Structures are given as C-alpha cells and as structure tokens.
Amino acid sequence: MKEQIKSIIKDIESVCADDTIKNFYIGKTDDVNDRECEHLNNGYTNFSVIATGASDIINYTETALISYFRTSRLKSKLVNINNGGGGNAEADTLYIVFVRCNVEDISEVDGSLMPSGYPINIK
To answer: Is the dihedral of CA 43, 45, 50, 52 positive or negative?
Structure first.
C-alpha cells in the first residue's frame, strides 16, 4: 500500500506541475456520481477517481495524501482544511478534484487529469 501511495503522490505532483492547475481537493465517497456533481457545481473543473478499496484503507490513504500535501511545495494549492479521515466512514472510493484555469481548449476543462491506469485498487 505504501508504494501505491507514493505512486499516487508522484502522479498528483505531475498533474499539478501544469500552471493551469489552481487548486485541488482530495476526498472519499461511496457515491461517485453524487460527489462529482457536487464538486462540479461548486466550481471544480476536473474530477478523477484515484483509488477504490476497503473503507479502512481508503480512509488511511486519504489521510496520508492530505498530510503529505499539507507540508509539500503544493500546500498552497491544497484546499482541504482537515487532515482527512472524517466524513463517510463507509467510503470505498478516493477521488481528487481540480480547478483548472486559463486553458487554450475548453475541452480540457472536463474529465480526469490523472494518467491512464487510474483508478487503482489499493490494498
């Protein structure tokens, strides 16, 4: 699991290296469609499912990712206020949403920004 978390971190850092990424939020849910609609209605532009797995593993991974990014060079782009681990205890899906601005093609403001191979089944 720790290697999977390191890989997720590396991929998020890669996505956020693009100057069009203004901020991002990491969360978990057991209803992906509902959460995606909620975030898109709140101004986020790109929703990506990162991982699926047992709720305790998703909770651990959410906390690990948020804790990492709160002290990383990307901390100014991280929107999460809490360190994770709260919310839906039954959540089996981990996601990330981005606000993307100043894109050249409007089609870039939709869909997943994570590399192919996502979501992963985290164990």
So the answer is: positive
